[in-house]
Amino acid sequence: QVQLMESGGGLVQAGGSLRLSCAASGSIVSISAMGWYRQAPGKQRELVATTSRGGSTDYADSVKGRVTIYRDNDKNTVYLAMNSLRPEDTDVYYCRVTVFFKAYWGQGTQVTVSS
């Protein structure tokens, strides 16, 4: 089994910054893709950003230029650095990792951006 431990969410004013962290532990040999998704009440979960083990990245258009995803492979940890936050960024953010083609999800961390 793989466990994901998320941290870094909270309340921030518009224009502020947050850094989310997700550390994977358990039965891990090697992690391929790692990423962050978000979901608002009554809506589908959507991609924010992903990164491969080799460091390639992909971002949603809504956050491009304001978000940076990066990972520490030795620590099995992925980070999401966010700045210039907007009220529409308010969501529950979920970490996702892939191990041997199986996806694992974190419990989610709340990000609230006030105006």
The helix fraction, in percent, is under 10%
Structural class call reads mainly beta
**Strand residue content:** over 45%
**How many β-strands, per DSSP?**
11
The description of the largest β-sheet is: 7 strands, mixed
Pick out its properties:
single chain, about 120 residues, mainly beta, seven-stranded mixed β-sheet, four-stranded antiparallel β-sheet, 11 strands, about 0% helix
Would you kindly provide a written description of the structure presented here, covering whatever features stand out?
- This protein has no helices and 11 strands.
- Helices cover 0% and strands 57% of the residues.
- The protein starts with a strand and ends with a strand.
- Strand 7 (67-72) and strand 8 (77-82) form a beta hairpin.
- The mean pLDDT is 94.
Fold topology:
Elements: E1 2-7, E2 10-13, E3 18-26, E4 34-39, E5 46-51, E6 57-59, E7 67-72, E8 77-82, E9 91-99, E10 102-105, E11 109-114
Parallel strand pairs: 2-11
Antiparallel strand pairs: 1-3, 3-8, 4-5, 4-9, 5-6, 7-8, 9-10, 9-11
A few lines on this structure:
The protein is mostly beta strands and 115 residues long. Helices cover 0% and strands 57% of the residues.
